[in-house]
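Structure in, sequence out. Go:
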């Protein structure tokens, strides 16, 4: 069914409609025929209304003014479109008129403005001149505060906003206004102090957007009044130091010591980061109610929006261990730049996650610090919609637009935002329209690219100067009192700088407080007791095959469950899916929650997992691991959206927010992890060394050459290995289910946390020679090196490798004993001692070769070559594909030929004998 003209008009972007309307007014033939018909109908309606007897003029016969204007339509227009003419730009560039809100388009004429009308539905029961109603509507919907909310489908939410926006809001009392002024002065003085005392050093000044500080100050206090116990903030550089100083109350001495070049504290693990990337936390005590709220700011890299999903994951973890199922006690606040909000895809991914049950945190408060410029990029070059906030309409979220030169409007927006979030558990956006007084950083000259704009900014009064005059006019304060506040703040900073220079204070280590208590930095011993008694494994095996009465699983899934139970009962041929489930089940019974997410991870891309099975009749799910025993921990098995960066960032946040759960992210194919490379590079690989933040996140990355083409073969082990240093993470290539079992369990059975990258199998999932006996799960541990299962200690040829190529070589060598196969199961940390011992068991080996499926410039070859050469005391040979730009061929026959050639080169004449 095609939409009607009214649907077309109301669903279209208002700015787009306005531009079409202008084009139509100039030349009706210049617009599409469909729009021409719509506009012609509007013109006809307006003309008919004006020409009708009594429409807008007194009747000569009766003196009656005729039918009055449609007030309901007028009010609706301002509710929906008032923001289009709002006074939002501090520099005065906001359009104050719009064709759709002109008198003619509203069905009015100048002569109508003095009519007495009923103001319902805007102010039921009130009457007055239409002119006064229009002024009231403009003041409400088109002032320095404006709101977009009419596109929200939920009537209850719309009415909640309407009631609070349209009701007569009491003016802020004098005490609150003085607090706002004090916060503004603190923010401005801080920036000016840094500008003079640390000239040329980067700080990413907040000047032009100082209203952010009273906005966040109000948000914190209002959140505490609404029973929020924790706020977790994520933000980019702009204004970050100011927020640290005046919202999280990081002492000036610590900030100035960082400018002075204070050395890293002895207890800091790693190399640290620049001052405007660092995090901090603070217990904020309310000024009036006596409550306390914990406020933390997550550390982040220069990839401005990458921290967004990380914060969401941290919040979800905090809610989980608080058992906050209503998601009211911990709330996320994300600050964005305008250019980044519209330019970074991870913003959209994060917005989408917020609407999904398995990822929601009960609503996020987004604050866009809208500088109206990128680095040197003007809005016309990065903004394709009217507002930077328009991306949030996908949720949809209400948007509160604020002129940053009106700090009281910022206070109003903050109160509404946290109230809406707590009431509806949904996202809300504050668009703080401001400007940037300096360049992208303080060493940058913005006049090179925006000379006219920056000449205007240079002469524009600061928000403090404007607000002081406003308060003085209202008798709240005067300029001398404001000057005294500035002097006092400057004196505090001056004293703090002297202390910083003298004592070089350092921020206390916060890595192992709270839920991290009892954990610490990794030492030299990375072992763990990961054994599970056979009786417990059999108990889990029984649970894996159990379904409730009345549940009829799909037949294939029923066979999978029965097969698992049978394998465990027999104690042999434990396949990969069973071993993984036994690892999770054992942790759940030990009280360790498990979260597994990824695209199609519940079933598994290769139909090997079946973490949930589904009733053949009504389709509802049953998760066997969630029903092993009373009192067990919870198993979360989650199918994620088709997103890598957002979901992996979220799961990283979960793992760093709660180290006492196992968090696993699985790529659909390992190749697709490259869609989350920023999260891998900046957080997983470097988070501990930069920010002293550990993570035990597991990445399951299906890897292996089966002829499925260049995007379904390689998890790019070379990229992970290039990131490995300072024992920052683990990269393993398990070739048996028992190895995976122990690797997963040791993630939570050590006194530290490290990310684990698992180059997990694909074809091996159903390859019987790789399966493990149950005894290998109840005994032993993860082994970084696996010796030749045939014990070929007298072999003249020694082949070292990772992954499934072992089984191809083992099959091809047949019964000949001249070749030994050594599997390197852990690539990093490089198991030097275990390898040395394994190599010593083959004293007769004269030909030593590295064999891999990947091309020579990929895989592990360039990583292991210098290390193995050092161990052997001589060069070793290479067997594998030639260097290639693409990971693999897309032609199956060519893949088979390459594999045969690889095996033949590795084994020499043994291949023909085996055949």
């Amino acid at each position: 069914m095609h939409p009607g003209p009214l649907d077309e008009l109301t669903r279209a972007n208002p700015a787009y409609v306005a531009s079409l309307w202008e084009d139509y007014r100039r030349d009706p033939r210049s617009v599409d025929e469909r729009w021409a018909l719509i506009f012609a109908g509007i013109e006809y309606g307006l003309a008919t209304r004006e020409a009708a007897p009594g429409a807008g003029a007194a009747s000569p016969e009766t003196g009656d003014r005729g039918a009055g204007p449609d007030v309901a339509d007028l009010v609706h227009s301002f509710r929906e479109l008032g923001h289009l003419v709002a006074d939002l730009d501090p520099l005065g560039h906001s359009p104050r008129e719009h064709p759709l809100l002109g008198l003619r388009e509203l069905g009015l004429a100048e002569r109508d403005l003095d009519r007495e009308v009923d103001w319902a539905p805007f102010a039921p029961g009130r009457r007055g001149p239409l002119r006064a109603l229009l002024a009231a509507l403009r003041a409400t919907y088109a002032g320095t505060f404006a709101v977009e909310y009419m596109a929200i489908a939920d009537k209850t939410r719309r009415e909640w906003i309407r009631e609070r926006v349209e009701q007569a809001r009491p003016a802020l009392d004098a005490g609150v206004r003085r607090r706002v002024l004090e916060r503004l002065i603190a923010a401005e003085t801080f920036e000016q102090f840094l500008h003079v005392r640390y000239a040329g050093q980067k700080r990413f000044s907040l000047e032009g957007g100082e209203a952010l500080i009273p906005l966040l100050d109000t948000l914190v206090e209002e959140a505490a009044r609404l029973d929020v116990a924790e706020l977790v903030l994520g933000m980019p550089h702009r204004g970050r130091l100011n927020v640290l100083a005046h919202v999280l109350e990081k002492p000036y001495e610590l900030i100035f010591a960082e400018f002075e070049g204070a050395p890293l504290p002895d207890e800091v693990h790693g190399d640290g980061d620049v001052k405007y990337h660092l995090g901090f936390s603070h217990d904020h005590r309310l000024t009036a109610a006596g409550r306390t709220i914990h406020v933390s700011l997550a550390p982040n890299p220069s990839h401005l929006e990458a921290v967004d999903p990380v914060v969401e994951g941290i919040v979800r973890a905090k809610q989980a261990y608080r058992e906050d199922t209503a998601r009211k006690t911990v709330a996320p606040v994300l600050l964005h730049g305008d250019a980044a909000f519209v330019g970074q895809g991870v913003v959209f991914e994060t917005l989408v996650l917020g609407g999904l049950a398995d990822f929601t945190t009960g609503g996020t408060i987004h604050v866009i610090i809208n500088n109206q410029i990128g680095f040197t990029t003007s809005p016309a070059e990065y903004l394709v919609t009217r507002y930077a906030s328009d991306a949030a309409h996908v949720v949809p979220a209400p948007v509160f637009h604020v002129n940053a030169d009106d700090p009281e409007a910022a206070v109003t927006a903050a109160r509404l935002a946290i109230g809406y979030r707590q009431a509806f558990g949904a996202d809300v956006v504050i668009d703080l329209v401001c400007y940037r007084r300096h360049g992208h950083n303080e060493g940058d000259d913005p006049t090179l690219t925006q000379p006219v704009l920056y000449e205007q900014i240079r002469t524009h009064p600061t928000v403090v100067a404007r607000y002081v005059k406003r308060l003085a006019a209202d008798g709240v304060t005067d300029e001398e009192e404001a000057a005294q506040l500035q002097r006092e703040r400057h004196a505090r900073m001056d004293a703090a700088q002297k202390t910083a220079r003298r004592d070089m204070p350092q921020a206390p280590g916060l890595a192992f407080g709270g839920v991290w208590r009892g954990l610490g930095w990794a030492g030299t011993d990375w072992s763990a007791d990961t054994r599970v008694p056979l009786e417990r494994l059999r108990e889990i095996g029984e649970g894996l095959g159990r379904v409730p009465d009345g549940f009829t699983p799909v037949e294939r899934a029923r066979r999978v469950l029965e097969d698992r139970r049978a394998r465990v009962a027999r104690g042999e041929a434990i396949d990969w899916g069973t071993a993984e489930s036994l690892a999770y089940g054992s942790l759940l019974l030990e009280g360790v929650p498990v979260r597994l997410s990824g695209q199609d991870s519940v079933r598994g891309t290769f139909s090997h997992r079946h973490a949930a099975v589904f009733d053949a009749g009504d389709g509802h799910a049953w998760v066997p691991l969630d029903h092993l025993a009373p009192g067990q921990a919870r198993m979360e098995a989650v199918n994620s959206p088709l997103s890598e960066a957002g979901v992996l960032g979220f799961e990283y946040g979960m793992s760093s927010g709660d180290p006492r759960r196992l968090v696993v992210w699985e790529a659909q194919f390992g190749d697709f992890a490259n869609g989350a490379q920023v999260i891998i590079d900046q957080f997983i690989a470097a988070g501990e060394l930069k920010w002293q933040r550990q993570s035990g996140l597991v990445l399951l990355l299906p890897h292996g050459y089966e002829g499925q083409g260049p995007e379904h073969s390689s998890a790019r082990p070379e990229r992970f290995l290039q990131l490995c240093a300072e024992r920052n993470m683990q990269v393993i290539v398990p070739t048996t289910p028992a190895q995976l079992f122990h690797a997963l369990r040791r993630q939570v059975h050590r006194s530290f946390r490290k990310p684990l990258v698992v180059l997990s199998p694909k074809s091996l999932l159903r390859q019987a020679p790789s399966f493990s006996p149950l005894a290998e799960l109840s005994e032993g541990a993860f082994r970084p090196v696996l010796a030749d299962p045939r014990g070929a200690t007298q072999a003249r040829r020694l082949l070292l490798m990772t992954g499934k190529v072992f089984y191809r070589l083992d099959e091809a060598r047949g019964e000949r004993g001249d070749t030994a196969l050594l599997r390197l199961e852990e690539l990093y940390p490089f198991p030097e001692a275990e390898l040395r011992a394994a190599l010593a068991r083959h004293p007769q080996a004269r030909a030593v070769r590295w064999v891999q499926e990947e091309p020579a410039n990929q895989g592990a070859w360039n990583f292991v070559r210098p290390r193995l050469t050092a161990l052997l005391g001589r060069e070793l040979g290479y067997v594998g594909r030639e260097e290639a730009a693409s990971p693999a061929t897309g032609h199956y026959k060519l893949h088979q030929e390459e594999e045969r050639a690889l095996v033949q080169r590795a084994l020499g004449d043994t291949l023909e004998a085996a055949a």
